[in-house]
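Human:
Focus on the backbone:
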Amino acid sequence: MGDSQSPRKREDLSSLLRFTSDFFGKSGALSTLGDFEFRPEQYEMAMAVARALDEERPLVVEAGTGVGKSLAYLAPAVRMALEEGRKAIISTHTINLQEQLILKDIPLLKSVFKKPFRAVLLKGRSNYLCPRRLSIAMSSGPELFTHSEMEELEQIWKWAETTKDGTLSDLNFTPSPRVWSQVCSESHACTPKTCASSGVCFYQEVKKKVSDAHVLVVNHTLFFTLLNAQSEFQESGDGFLFARDFLIFDEAHTLEQVAARQLGFSLSQTGLKFDLHRLYNPRNKKGLFQLLGDADGRRLTMGLLDAVDEFFDRVEGRCRWGEQGREFRVRDVELVEDTLGGGLIEVSRRARAIADLAKETMKAELTELARRLNDCRAGLATFLDQSDEGLVYWVEKSERESLSLNAAPIDVAELLRPVFFQRQRACIFTSATLGVGDRDLGYFRRRVGAEEVEAVRIGSPFDYARQMEIHVVKGIPDPKERGYEAALAKWIRHFASKSGGRAFVLFTSYKLLQKLAAELEEFFQEKKIRLLVQGTGTPRRQLVEEFKEDETSVLFGTDSFWTGVDVPGKALSNVIITRLPFAVPDHPLIQARLEWIEEHGGNSFMDYSLPEAVLKLRQGVGRLIRSSQDSGMVVILDNRIVTKRYGKTFLDALPEAPVEIVE
């Protein structure tokens, strides 16, 4: 492992490496841009990516904020896609980065690339409207939909005549899930064959664009969904989603969490009833069985709906909810008796039987719902029998008190290793935060099964010693001691006043956020500082935009504001960390991981809890400096960073900036 490989003479470089070296050089194609600034760190990363692509092997790269990593991987990836007729898959975690790639980085690259190339953003299939399904829904009318639902359908019909991409995000209102589920693209009903004669089908159109694209941008969740259904795109060849494709995971620090969720399963009470209501809803007497006049189907569905509620009532009765009352880990086989399996089989069979007699338009819908009910039955059996010992099982309660049965792999490394790291295939894993003070990025590589993969760690070009100050308040009580919350309010007032607002205050507890927001509201009003608070009904993106526009505001945020938020300029000059971000080990998946580490001879705190908290702290601190012109302070209101032995691990992982210890 190393930070980089020794340079070779230019004549010894491959075509891809020569191109990359020239492109990012001081007088290369990139230098023709008006605001070009040669960055050695960007050049180093681009060459490392080009070398891995050229040699058809995986690579792990941490590239600090300001490196320009998007262009560093995009340019060699596009060149390889063009020269070899292959497809580059770019997967991100956040919508923000997807939009940056599609709206900023890729157009910029097109402006300086000699050859034209095509890039497509692909969303999950259910985001796209299928006009054929919309026509069927409109013709079904009152037999399938209520009056208010018909009004929604008419609104969607009008929108369909003008929309360019036909995706849910382009719709100017939020339709009910039931209505959208009847008109969105689904694999059983929206196919090239069925939609060819119905005019423009948005999903089929984007599929054609995907087929012709050199670059495909997706998110991590969609990537794993497509990976499990390769047949939709891949006809032959050894690739991830397409024949001979290659893969770049940006925001790779989220890979383990997304993979665990996507490689497991979830069966929710709400989701199961939603599918059954598509067959028949006794309350409004709508559904496919009603439309087709099937009395037996209606009777069986009503019986199963009652059984679903009774089953989940019994499940809840067996759960001993923790302090938060949201998750209960299931350790014993057969938490409750399986009283749903028989009914699921009966309704599924009835749907298939009626499908054989129905018109083609209804046949696909009934067949798909029958398949889903069979999948539910199989998932239910796996959950109750705990037949896969590599999974952790738990019951989860939503904010609306609906229950779900969940399972996820404890060790995703065993599942990811053969997919990404045991074959000679090019795949790049990059993020600004992969390391926890380990120069070889060993923690990240172990978590995802990349132990034998080359790791490159590239620092930020920013001058943190000049741009950032770190204030550690030693005089504040330990977070577990009495007086901590009162002292927290005092120090937030102090440092927010010092920066004149312009601050993110990052919490690890939403309950504490709410309490402090209420307590400090009057103070901020007196100071004429606008207080923006997560969880008050304003969407996250709008909160960030309002924060940017009002350069004296303070934003209180929890988990989602620690990462993926980009506020360059004067609006943000202070990031206040209220507590070191140790994950509370109350979630069953975290509990199972900690137990697994101990059972295999490790130390769960040092091997998991501490590194995860270090990564989260680095991400929170990383909100502050987003450009070479930014400056400001980071404030840490948790004395454990200087009073506990492990605190040095946190300090060592922070940018090299001056640190003031406040007594």
In short: The CA atoms of residues 142 and 395 lie 37 Å apart. DSSP finds 26 helices and 18 strands in the chain. Residues 360-385 form the longest helix (26 residues). The radius of gyration is 27 Å.
